[in-house]
């Protein structure tokens, strides 16, 4: 690893075709989100969003922490004007608006902004010892990265209110019970399982995967009727895709499809 890589707050790897792994790299502070890390992470997502050969993104921390939240040293004396000037909604938006499927591989703590970062993913693979929570209320703040909205959509009003108003941490098992975690695996298998899943997704038809992500996310912000109309349109669009023809022919011919994203 060269000096530039050592200094990076986000390490990019390409473990397999179509899959990119982004590792948060502030282990001394449990991968706390300072402004520099937020900007670097957003930059990666913007770049990867436009790379056709990237079909799935995995984001991870380390064995001790996915991300323990915001770096409070940057908050203690901050003024409203300074917070506005940081444009954090744009930095979060780079992740939220990424058209690629995103998997969060969570070991250890995913708290505050770290839990919000995980919720920006499409799938969360959690280690059996991982912990989730939004403890902002304990320091006189509220979540600022979407937790009041995303957690409520995931868990419902009553569970979200309890977690947000108390700042309680919950286990991976509890997180899965409220719909926050896709699956739980042994701690040492989190990254390998996330990468295995990413490889499986990367092998699917890229346009189909993208439209699935689009329509599922739209379902969270619209009525059932509007969502069904959106799904029908997306389904119809797929019939102009050569991947549709390849996929069906491969199935009928009992062979593996060769998807091109066209």
Topology summary:
Elements: H1 3-7, E1 10-16, E2 19-24, H2 35-49, E3 56-60, E4 65-67, H3 80-85, H4 88-96, E5 102-106, E6 109-111, H5 113-119, E7 123-127, E8 131-133, H6 147-155, H7 157-166, E9 169-171, H8 172-177, E10 183-185, H9 190-202, H10 206-219, H11 224-237, H12 242-252
Parallel strand pairs: 2-3, 3-5, 4-6, 5-7, 6-8, 7-10
Antiparallel strand pairs: 1-2, 8-9
Helix pairs in contact: 2-4, 6-7, 10-11
Q: Short description, anyone?
A:
The protein is 45% helix and 16% strand. By secondary structure, it is an alpha/beta fold.
Could you characterize the architecture of this molecule?
With 262 residues, the protein is of the alpha/beta class. It contains twelve helices and ten strands. The chain folds into two domains: 200 residues, 2-enoyl-CoA Hydratase, Chain A, domain 1 (Alpha-Beta Complex), CATH 3.90.226.10; 47 residues, Orthogonal Bundle (Lyase 2-enoyl-coa Hydratase, Chain  A, domain 2). It is globular.
Q: What is the residue-averaged pLDDT?
A: 94
Radius of gyration: 19 Å
State the order of secondary-structure elements, H for helix, E for strand.
Answer: HEEHEEHHEEHEEHHEHEHHHH
Under CATH at level 1, the class of the largest domain stands as Alpha Beta
The total number of structural domains is: 2
